[in-house]
Amino acid sequence: MKSLKNHLLLCILLLCSTIIAQTKIISFENVNVIPMNIDTLITNQRVIIANSKILKIEPVSKTITNHIDITIDASGKYLIPGLVETHYHLQNNIENEFKLLIANGITSARNMAEYKGQNHIKIRELAQSNTILSPHYYSTGPYLKRHDFKHIDSVDVIVRYHKKRGYDYLKIADNLPKDIYLKLLETAKKENIEIVGHGQRELPLEFSLRIKSIAHVEEFMNIFSKEERNSIAYLQKAAKEIKTSGIYVSPTLGIFEMISRYADKEKSKLLNSNKNIKYLPKHYSDYWKSDSINYRKHSWFTDKESLIRLENELEWQKKFTLLLHKQGVPLMAGSDTYGLFLPGFSLHHELELIQSSGLSNYETLKTATVVPARYFNAISQSGTISEGKLADLVLLEKIH
């Protein structure tokens, strides 16, 4: 593979199982397959799809023995597994945003908060019943902050609510008192509810590693002291501890980078001129392009020293992302979509940032395919291009 950017700047042609009602047998002829089970490119293949599953993969030189209804000449094109967005936030219209995800090759997505007025259980039902065009959809409950846990008895109420509603995950997004945090871990375990979200910045590292996954490598930057952040020996020790815990980590580098893209005047001009903003509702994009947002109002973001600090902090996060990867910590791509970080497009940029942290092209693509498939217990059906798996596929054409 050449540079990841060359492979991401591709024209998405087809998403088999999410767009085409699989009543016909389809054959991709002479396609180059990036299967993702190993780091390889298999050229000149025939991939046959039937009943929304991969029926057969064979060299195109072999004589076809199957009845084929639709033949697609995929010469010079590349077939990859559908991408997974592990950190999606609904901001506007769900059907429009699902279209943006799918148009960008995302066949699975996890919502990371149910905000007031939203109903992600209903959205998941619509997705599972194919009532609306959608990726495979996973749901997380309300965005839980410290004030939601007014006393320790609040834990039972919140966990029971999640159990009754049937969310896939419970998300915490704040520092909790130690006794409440421990009670939440215990109660959620009894109810078989997995906890995800932010770290516990006021407690030692080990406490944060007791949940299923941490969103934002920035969390570690804030859990560690200044001295610890600047100690290679400590960071290597911490990375080993994170690996040992078995926790998954979503770097979400792009949404942190967005802070400086809002705050820096020159970067902000480029951001506001992004042609893809047209896919957002005008009232929404107008607000995020305005000087009303916090990132453009406060000197903590806009001062020259602040911009330098943000740049240095992003570089630290990229270096720690690479260190986590080298220790074998499972990393998952997630972009944290809100503001002008558009659904779908944002994941491509996140992958570019992960790759620029020092991961190979293959290891970078794993963060949006193989690793989240294992995380969602879906590896038997997705994550790689293999016979018998769902045809959650993206056919790509390289742009020169």
Radius of gyration: 22 Å
Beta strand count: 14
Mean pLDDT: 93
Q: Judging from the principal axes of the Cα atoms, what is the shape?
A: globular
Terminal residue distance? 14 Å
Number of helices: 19
Which percent range describes the beta-strand content? 15-25%
Poorly predicted tracts of residues: 1-18
Main beta-sheet annotation: 7 strands, mixed
Helix amount: 40-55%
Structural class: alpha/beta
List keywords for this structure.
14 strands; 400 residues; disordered N terminus; globular; four-stranded parallel beta sheet
What do these coordinates show?
The chain is of the alpha/beta class and 400 residues long. The chain is 41% helix and 18% strand. Strands 1, 2, 3, 4, 5, 6 and 14 form a seven-stranded mixed β-sheet that branches. Strands 10-11-12-13 form a four-stranded parallel β-sheet, with helices on one face. It has a three-stranded parallel β-sheet with strand order 7-8-9. The relative contact order is 0.18. The model is unreliable at 1-18 (pLDDT under 50).
List the helices and strands and how they pair.
Layout: H1 4-8, E1 10-15, H2 16-19, E2 26-33, E3 42-50, E4 53-59, E5 70-73, E6 77-81, E7 83-88, H3 94-103, E8 106-111, H4 120-128, E9 136-138, H5 154-165, E10 169-172, H6 178-190, E11 194-197, H7 205-208, E12 213-215, H8 218-223, H9 226-229, H10 232-245, E13 248-250, H11 253-263, H12 265-272, H13 282-289, H14 294-297, H15 299-302, H16 304-326, H17 345-356, H18 361-366, H19 370-375, E14 393-398
Helix pairs in contact: 11-12, 11-16
